[in-house]
Structure formats: structure tokens, C-alpha cells
Amino acid sequence: MSPRSHAADPAAAATTATSENSLTVILAFFANLLVAVAKSIVALFTGSAAMVAEAAHSWADAGNEIFLIIGERRARRAPDADHPLGYGRSGYVWSMFAAFGLFTVGSAVSIWHGIQALGAPDEEVSYFWAYIVLAVAFVLEGTSFLQAWRETRQGAAKRHISQLRYLGTTSNPMLRSVFLEDFVALIGLVIAALGLYLHQVTGSAVWDAVASILVGVLLGVVAITLIAKNAVFLTGEAGTPLARNMLLEQILTHPNTESVSFLHTEWVGADRILVIASVDLVGDNPESRIREMLQEVEDRLEQEPFVARAILGLSRPGDHTRLQVEPLPTWYEE
């Protein structure tokens, strides 16, 4: 793979990615808001435990999207004296808030209501309107999910990995949150519809309650997954093998560089990486020229749209370590 596989204009490439990310989050917010209102109305009139769970789920998702919108906007702020690497990590913080909201509101409320409904007397449910709302919700959630799927597919194609692998490794917390929340929402709708159907066929509200509990458990699993993933990035997640190879090749192919003895990469935001390296320079130059040569290599690295900052120093005397571009793991596609 060429070390310069991005668009010719880094600023344009970054702007396009940011716009795509914003559209995904905003579309998810409006879809969840409309769905939450519709589900709440039907849950109020039908008394269905599964519909109450679904309403809680959608309200939690809508609230979470507000956290994601705030996080996305704050993460875009330009670097300043207090934050020389930018505010990218704030996206992980606000995504963490969203995950906690999904767990406490969506999961806990759904499970608790389902448990209460297990011992409640059977009541007649207006199945027609419940099915209508679930169908409409599926269309709206599906529209939001398709946008997240599209963005995931584009990112996976650029990195030559599967969409599932990209979702697990991407440094973009907003995309991961929206994708998983929408995906779980679609599964939850199917579970709720199945619970309603079994209630209708058997006359037992137990199925409705079980559906509510299952939706809550599913939300809890996703919330814990998102919390764990954001915690990893907040504590310093290293760049992917592909990013490491691309950056190492950029340094090694620079005319100023003889070899690289140390390379550290760390995500500091969505598609924003910090690069620290120790290098040997060609020739025997005075100190003033050495600093200029290092700066030239740093400038080349920082032309990459995903590099937030590159910091290079000289290798320690006597350090004979020579880093090389390594074969990529088998999960990278040719």
C-alpha cells in the first residue's frame, strides 16, 4: 500500500469525514426522537411491557445522541495553548456519558419493568397500533442505521479491513456508538414484535415481559461494550498496525532519515494520532542543521490528515535497534 493513500487535499479530506460523522449523529438523533414519541404514546394506551421497554430504549438513545453531538462538536475544536493536541479525546468522554445513559435508562428501566410485568395480571393490548408503531420505528431506525453502515463501509474500505473489524478498531467513538445503538434498536424491535405476537397468540403477558427483559439485557451488553472501548482510548490506545506501517514508511523514505529505533503512536481523537519517534539522520551535521532536518521529517508526517502532532528526536548513542515495516495481520484484506 502506498504511504500516501489519502486525498490530495488533507484539509478537504478531514472536512468531508467530519461532515459525514455529524450527519450520522444528527440523523440518529431525529430518528430516535420521533420513534421515542410514537412508542411512548402507544405504550401509554396499550400497557405493553415490551412497548414500555422500547420507549425507554428510544428515549435513552435520543438523549445519548445529544451527548454525542456535544462530544463531536467539542472534539472538533482547534488546538490551543492548553490543549496542543486538540480536544479529540473529549469525544470519548461524551461517548462514555452516552454509554452510561444507555445502561442506566435504557437497560435498567427495561429489565425492571419487565420483572414487574411478570407478576402483573394479564391485560388486553391494542396490538394493531403497537405493530404499526414498531413497523414505523423499524423504518426510521433502519434509515439511521444505513447511514452509519455506509460510513463504516467507507472507513473499512480505506483501511482494507472488514466492516466488523473496522467497527472494533476505529478511533471514532461517535460512529461506533450510533452503529451499535441503531443495530441493537433494530434487534430490539424484532424482539418486541415477537413478544407482542406471542402475547396475542397465547393470551399470556409473560411473553411481553420476557421481551422487555431481553431488550434490557441486550442494551446492557452494548452499553458495557461501549464503556470498555471508550475507556481503552481514554487511557491511551496505540495506532493500528496499518497506521504504524504507514508512518514508519513515511519516516524511512524521507531523505533525511537513516533509520528509526523507536516509534510510538497513540490515538488522541477520532482519526487523530500522536507520533513520537527516535531516528538516526544521514550525514554528520551541526546541531542547528539537525534540528532543521528533524523538523522537515515532522512536517512531512503532519501533512497526513490523521496526524495531530509528530515529535521526533535522535536515537540514543549505541542504540542499534532498526525498526522495519512489518507484515500486516491476516485480518487486513489485500
Task: Explain the overall architecture.
The chain is mainly alpha-helical. The protein folds into two domains: 225 residues, Cation efflux protein transmembrane domain (Alpha-lytic protease prodomain-like); 74 residues, Cation efflux protein, cytoplasmic domain (Alpha-Beta Plaits). It contains nine helices and three strands, in the order H-H-H-H-H-H-H-H-E-E-H-E. It has a three-stranded mixed β-sheet. Helix 9 links the parallel strand 2 and strand 3. Helix 2 packs antiparallel against helix 6, helix 2 runs parallel beside helix 7 and helix 3 runs antiparallel to helix 7. The protein starts with 9 loop residues before the first helix and ends in a 20-residue tail after the last strand. The N terminus is likely disordered.
Features:
disordered N terminus; 334 residues; Alpha-lytic protease prodomain-like; three-stranded mixed beta sheet; mainly alpha; 2 domains; 66% helix; single chain; Alpha-Beta Plaits; 9% strand
